[in-house]
Amino acid sequence: MNTTPNENRRHHERSTLPPMLTSISVQYIQGRADDEGFMLKRCDGHAYDLSISGARIEIDEPLEQGQMIAVSLTLPEGWGDVFTSARVVWVNDQDDDPGPRRMAIEFTDFLATQDRDILKKFLRLGTIRQAA
């Protein structure tokens, strides 16, 4: 699906999260079968906005657009952790992000129905504000 840079592709409203208070841990497989093998990598960072279908995050290492990842998201205000798989939708280039890299992820599947329910309730009842 082709989209223009200014086209809004979001299907759900997103909410801004308190800076540096919403931790995220991303795991992914690095390597290929025809190389020396696979390695499970982990990167930690923060989420900056969130919806029921995805998030804008920042981690130390850039991921590849389209890459599948496992996500552990620690919600602020004591709401707990949410576990999901996700696909990387876009990654800022190095010129825009010389340090930690900002990127967007789309949730593809929640580990359990409870994870989706916690996230939905947090977005509805938490003290976060709707993003622009």
Structural account:
- This protein is mainly beta and 132 residues long.
- The protein has a single domain, classed as Beta Barrel (Thrombin, subunit H).
- 10% of the residues lie in helices and 46% in strands.
- The chain has one helix and eight strands.
- It has one helix at 113-125, and strands spanning 15-16, 23-30, 39-51, 54-59, 68-75, 80-91, 101-110, 129-130.
- Strands 2-3-4-7-6-5 form a six-stranded antiparallel β-barrel.
- β5 and β6 (80-91) form a beta hairpin.
Summarize the structure.
The chain has 132 residues and is mainly beta.
Could you list the spans in which at least 5 consecutive residues all have pLDDT below 50?
1-7
Strand order of the largest sheet: 2-3-4-7-6-5
CATH C-level class: Mainly Beta
Please name the CATH architecture: Beta Barrel
Q: Approximately what portion of the residues adopt beta-strand conformation?
A: over 45%
How many strands? Answer: 8
Cα separation of the termini: 24 Å
- Mean pLDDT across every amino acid position: 83
Helix content: under 10%
Our Rg estimate from Cα atoms comes to 15 Å
